[in-house]
Amino acid sequence: MIAQKARFRHARKLERLAGYRIPDQAFHGATLEAVSSRLNYDRLDHTLHDQMLNFIHSFMRCRCRETPLCGCPEKKFSREILELRENDLDHRQIAQFLQEEYGIDIYPADILSYLEDSVHVLEAIRDIARLQEMPDLCSKAGTHIDMLER
Length: 150
What we know:
Order of helices and strands: EHHHHHEHH
Oligomer: single chain
Largest sheet: 2 strands, antiparallel
Radius of gyration: 17 Å
Shape: elongated
Distance between the termini: 23 Å
Number of helices: 7
Structural class: mainly alpha
Helix content: 55-70%
């Protein structure tokens, strides 16, 4: 999954704030626990403070009982990448946006690979929907394929 390749650029600063070692992977369980705990984000510089608040707001808000280890942050991150691509950003621009908005580093090649895999999954969904005579699902899958491939 693409979320496994996302890393916090300033993980060491977060580590100092938490007071214990945390992985630099943005969606690692220990990292999510540290980010969602009551850390004093006011001790961070303005940019990192805003990035962490954006991260929490965009990926950590759900009503699951197992929050933050429920899987919702990873799903929301994957959805964010797909939506960015559907809004005409290429893989390099998506990587740049994620770095600026959330402080997440991810290789553009990993994003491109994820987008290609997503198109293949959507093609399979479209083909099965066509065989099962589900025209709405077939049409929606085709629309998303077109938006990802442009």
